[in-house]
Amino acid sequence: MTTPPTSDAPVTPTTPVQAADRGVRAHSFNAAAAQYGANRPSYPPALFDALEELTGRPLKDSRVVDVGAGTGLATARLHERGADVIAVEPGAGMATEFRRTLPGVPVVRGNGNALPLAAHCADLLTYAQSWHWTDPRRAVPEALRVLRPGGALALWWNTDALDVPWNAESARRIDEHFAGQNLSAEKRKFEARFADPTGSLDFVHREIRWSRRVPLDTHLANLGSHSVFLTDTEERTAAFFAEERRHLLAVFPDGLVEETYDVHLLLGSTPTTPGAPEPTA
């Protein structure tokens, strides 16, 4: 199997968020769950095609556990593909919004460090935008406990494509606004050892580019649903977005923003027989 690149690719990190504000940022989404669900990007069909290809099995009728499910953006796509999916979400506000938008899909309160699930009950464990909120030294053994032999752990993130000039300029302005928080390092330090410091899994890496065209207000609300803005002061946030609106209207005078993303997928498979060594490519 191959390991992900160690270059400065524009990727959301699996390194821990700074301890001082980790808890505050992790829980900030609950008060903005509706904003999050309405404005965050979903995921392209090619991502789920890649999941099926890499696991060697269709999502249809597979038992999938979507951990850190939030408002259900990824869960909905898995459900549409016919997966027998259950969501795990730690936050009360996010879980409430999940139940409102996906009333037919079960969601239980919990987190990846201590999954409220029986052993060997899942074919696939997914983390969409959420692995970096876990403690991988606890979450990896929990994943191995919950997965069936031959099951897989899939981690993925939508990341801004920083080879697109306006994306790069916007990222620079955000970094300057949050000077001292080292957001660039958070977004770009992406190696298998951060995903799994236990070394229990080898990961296959896939990168999928896609885009969506949205009104400027949706784009700004999407940005505003990120934890760094949710935990900033109202005054600073309002000032930043007023200036950001001005910059973006110069690029998109019709008020429609072309957001370009690279989805980075890490997938690690378990042995088909308990205790057997992981096959190598």
Task: Please provide a written account of the structure.
- Strands 3-2-1-4-5-7-6 form a seven-stranded mixed beta sheet.
- Helix 4 links the parallel strand 1 (63-67) and strand 2.
- It has helices at 19-27, 33-39, 45-55, 73-80, 92-101, 136-146, 165-177, 183-188, 192-195, 216-224, 227-230, 234-251; strands at 63-67, 84-89, 107-109, 122-128, 147-160, 204-215, 256-269.
- The protein has twelve helices and seven strands.
Task: Give the structure's gist in a few sentences.
The chain has helices at 19-27, 33-39, 45-55, 73-80, 92-101, 136-146, 165-177, 183-188, 192-195, 216-224, 227-230, 234-251; strands spanning 63-67, 84-89, 107-109, 122-128, 147-160, 204-215, 256-269. It is of the alpha/beta class.
Described by the principal axes of the CA atoms, the overall outline is globular
Structural class: alpha/beta
Work out the radius of gyration. 18 Å
The count of β-strands is 7
Measured by DSSP, the beta-strand proportion falls in 15-25%
Biggest β-sheet: strands ordered side by side in the sheet = 3-2-1-4-5-7-6
Keywords:
single chain; 281 residues; alpha/beta; 7 strands; globular; disordered N terminus; disordered C terminus
